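[Automated response] Your request has been received and processed.

Submitted sequence:
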Amino acid sequence: MKKNYPGLFIITLFFLFTGSLISCKKDDIDKPSQPVQLSDADSLKFLMYRTMQVSYVDGGRDSVFDLPTYYWYNQVPAIDPLSATYGSADELLDKMISFPVNPASGNRFDRFSFIDQGQLSDEIQGGVAGDLGMQVTFAYDANNNIILVVLFTDKNSPSGKLGVTRGWQITGINGENNVQYDGGNGSNVNRIINAVYNDAQATITFKKPDGSAVTHSLAKSVYQINPILFDTVFTTGGKKVGYFVFNTFSNVYNNGAPTFTKQEIDRVFAKFSAAAITSLIVDFRYNGGGSVNTAEYLSGLIAPASVTGKEMYRYVYNDKLTARAGEIGLQEKIVFEKGGNLSLNNVFFIGSDNTASASELTLNNLKPYMDVKLVGDTTYGKPVGFFTFTLNKYDAQGKEKFLADLYAINFETKNAAGQGGYYDGIIPDALANDYVGIAWGDSGDDHLAKIFSYLNTGSYGNKVSGFGPEKNKSLRIPITTTLQPMRFNGMIDYRVSGQLKDLK
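Generated structure:
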């Protein structure tokens, strides 16, 4: 399975239209020169190409309707998907997505499209994970040595329940004390990745900020993802400021039922309402996205009541889909069902180059209606999204067989003011450093220090308040691609599941 992760931690923006819309029966392939019964690998290449470049209708086998789904289909030249040049669908997809180029920058538009083996739904839609619940990365210590540290943990996960938290250093894994960084494909890095993300269990030795050591035996288990890593209400200069760290957009509804994610969001916003906050800080620094339903729900809670019924954002499709959008069930725009009950003077977002997809969408949704500020670093830059097409074939006995889910860019989003196109990321109003060793909510966090300075003086200031890289507790991330993320995230729209019509 190939996944394209933005930077170190994640993640991408995508919308999902579920359902097995694509199938390939042994007698249904409409290319006369190809074999009647294709191998799984060739079936996957064929169906993927047809769905992106020709038509999604009739499971990608249609040659009547001119309905390619790929957003940049007209920049991809004709390719024989069954050519031996491409040993796999991944190789073919890599070639296809290399053609769309941004004329403004000369960079590839598509860093996002991928093929997945179907593991995303549980985490994004169901809000359920089955891992250690711990994201790790390499960072510099006070002596400029690269060490392995915990970036964050999910409170409901095996590691979170044992008290493992942000800033703890990892000094040993499964009895091996060599956890030095040895390159992206180094033996140490591969061993760490397997232990933290892939293996069923691991014994890990941690060094806490106070210098004490503890060893925990951790085992993967299934748990409800808690998207809120931390929340509190600050008082600065007599002003009440709400703050929460939002890590993933797991869905607020699952098959119509409110989820744990919705409960947590509602809990936090009830807390902010009771405290009568006048400013809000939303920490998206490691958030690569998730459910579009959640992005819309969160946007509505943050926005003023006056936005009710107004446009939140709109979709832009390729010319072929645009011409028949209403006929085939594609939405054109989303409106605010209602605004929130907070009276906010300021909304700050904390971002980084790992902030992507639904996070960027939420920030962009609010720009036309509120004073929105971004503090941190330039975001990843993903204003585009996906439908999901499930690629299936039928074997010689007529049994349907799942091949993969295709996520190839299908549309772009723009806010009510027509703002979008942030392929190079959203530029912050103030730069801030991410010192991993500083605990969530510590006023010495560079982002929070700058925001508090702005609230009290109208200026972000230039220095960190009381902390810096010279302090042992102030670890920072120097290598943005040192380890893979804990789990894949993206923006998925389950609400419109099944609305993409299979024309006849």
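Summary generated for your ticket: The domain at 225-316+325-385+411-457 is CATH 3.90.226.10 (2-enoyl-CoA Hydratase; Chain A, domain 1). The longest strand covers residues 228-236.
If you did not submit this request, please reply to this message.
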